[in-house]
Design a protein that fits this description.
homodimer, 321 residues, alpha/beta, Nucleotidyltransferase, domain 5, 2 domains, 13 strands, 36% helix, globular
Chain lengths: 321, 321
């Protein structure tokens, strides 16, 4: 029988969402289990494995599923483990061989990788990177994640942890303090958190300037506040996105010198800031890129539905498995 | 009959060296033609093709050669062309389909790539990267070149021009003017030229400091002068290498976040500065690398013979062809 479906599992900080995905990226059935309701990897795997098995049998998909792909925080594609996942009690201080455990529980091949790599595979299978062999996906959420595909192959590195472009210091070496303990990391500027941080800095730096951002009473200010102010024509909010776009565009120019991608695909909440972010970003990239790459790399925004993208990305890994 | 040999062609700015290479990296016979003695690609190819054919027939290697690999300035591995090679009259202002022309002339498959990529393949086939699937070769010559291998595959990018790490500005965005027209490129610091430039800057910055470098009458000062002064215990010369190592080490920390290589292999004249360069480089890399990569990436110096490495690297491409 043809394998018509793949299981995509998006392990989030609270819930783990399971979707049965067809080759076109439709998700006819879904299910979920809690991620942090378990104290051991074994009990989490028991619950997740049961949910997957039920999803398959209750919908008469037995024998039609090619395998399971998972997007997992700190997931290591090389060996299928999750380790040092700070927010997950059962994987905080131990290495859990999650892919092998799920595979044993379900009888299906299982592969996993981190969220940004899953996003890159999702774009290649169902999204903006269809048909592309060289591209980079940048996820702009709380932090900045990245999935790099070169020659049609996801770059995972010797240890499975390649692609941490949010922690390069390509533009400001001595810059903002990052959660990783170093300074100047790209994600301290180019992320939802980074935009909010820039807003707070600008408000302090320019106490005399009028801006809608000063009227926001709920603190801390969020990137959404900045976006809404920019849409209302607020000059400072527009400048905050310009500042962000300039830094990200300068960094992308360096990333291009590494893998010469045909496209860089932006994904996640901040990507929806549209031209407030994209115009200065494209300008900075064009200004900073080495001449042999000039005009060759397209900047696009993901076309995948935000709510479905994580499950789709994870399922893309199963087609590869 | 088994294909026991590959032809490696190193196209330099003056001479093109041809070597017949066995699987262990021995070069039993060699030949050469001029690179710039020809006004058209056709006449260069006629001479080079003849030299290759003679090398094979005169030594009774007909039927034993698997193919030809070439290391070519501005060589494009994707389509086998050379274009905009500033120092080569017949390829200065035109795109020459060199690989196809040589293949037609010799009846052997021919692939080409740029020098740094050839160096990376050479290290993988014969050198320090044997058995490695994820590594970066950094060539430290007049400029800084790079060849990146990820998952066992050379990263060439959508256009064949990936891996210009000498033109990233990872450490100093507003720095020295580079030959590419931008500022702060890594190679303006970390290269033989960069070291010489640092020496000139230091001499001007610290006119009161005593240093052997002030006694050198032949100008401009070279990186070799600085190395010799450092070996004689000259404090300023040692500091010049420390400065260079700090910048290169900081940049390597960012490159690791891209492809998480198992090793970074330094090649070329400046790599022989040994611990004058390597100690500060390793220190800066350790200080700047993201914690998940800490202590995982080895810095080594190429073990290939400088005089042979370019031909070996080029021949490695032929085994792949």
């Amino acid at each position: 029988m043809d394998k018509l479906y793949a299981i995509g599992v998006d392990m989030g900080g609270t819930n783990t969402v399971i979707g049965l995905v067809d080759r076109r990226g439709n998700i006819p059935v879904r299910s979920a289990v809690g991620t942090v309701d378990y104290s051991t990897g074994e009990s989490y795997v028991a619950a997740l494995g049961n949910a997957i098995n039920e999803l398959i049998t209750q919908n008469n998909f037995a024998g039609k599923v090619t395998g399971i792909g998972m997007g997992v925080p700190n997931g290591n594609m090389n060996d299928g483990t999750v380790e040092k996942a700070a927010n997950i009690p059962w994987a905080k201080s131990t290495v859990v061989p999650l892919a092998a455990m799920i595979s044993e529980k379900t009888g299906l091949p299982c592969k996993l990788t981190n969220d940004a790599n899953a996003a890159a595979l999702g774009e290649m299978t169902y999204g903006a990177a269809k048909g592309l062999k060289d591209f980079i996906v940048i996820t702009l959420g709380t932090g900045l994640g990245s999935g790099i595909v070169a020659g049609g192959q996801l770059i995972v590195g010797h240890d499975g942890f390649a692609g941490e472009l949010g922690h390069t210091r390509t533009v400001r070496h001595n810059g903002r303090l990052c959660g990783c303990g170093r300074t100047g990391c790209l994600e301290t500027y180019a992320s939802a958190t980074g935009v909010a941080r820039t807003a707070r800095e600008f408000l302090e730096l320019y106490p005399e300037r009028e801006t809608l951002l000063r009227n926001i009473t709920a603190r801390p200010i969020t990137s959404k506040n900045v976006y809404e102010a920019a849409r209302s024509g607020d000059a400072m909010a527009v400048e905050i996105f310009e500042f962000t776009g300039r830094i990200l565009g300068g960094a992308l120019a360096d990333f291009i010198a590494f893998s010469s991608p045909k496209a860089i695909i932006l994904f996640g909440g901040l990507a929806h800031a549209g031209n407030f972010l994209l115009d200065p970003l494209r300008k900075a990239m064009a200004k900073n890129v080495l001449s042999i790459y000039e005009g060759k790399t397209e900047i696009t925004v993901s076309r995948l539905n935000d709510a479905e993208a994580a499950v789709l990305g994870a399922s893309a890994l199963a087609w590869e498995a």
